[in-house]
Amino acid sequence: MDKIAMNVKEMAKHLGVSAYTAYQLTKRPGFPTLKIGKRITIPVEQFKEWVARHAGND
After folding, report:
1. What residue ranges are annotated as transmembrane (predicted)?
2. From the first residue on, what is the mean pLDDT of each consecutive set of 10 residues in the chain (58 residues)?
3. SS (H, E, C) the chain
């Protein structure tokens, strides 16, 4: 089974940004996150869709 969610550090690695920048991104309205207790996870498919929608936008 493929992973359906990733943590913020994994997302940072995929985007090539720091963990701090990735955490800031999770606070943006409309960014796909799933909070489990205090843990922030990012659903993989929704993340891919978000990136596709925002690619090339400033």
Report:
1. none
2. 92 96 96 95 96 82
3. CCCCEEEHHHHHHHHCCCHHHHHHHHCCCCCCCEEECCEEEEEHHHHHHHHHHHCCCC
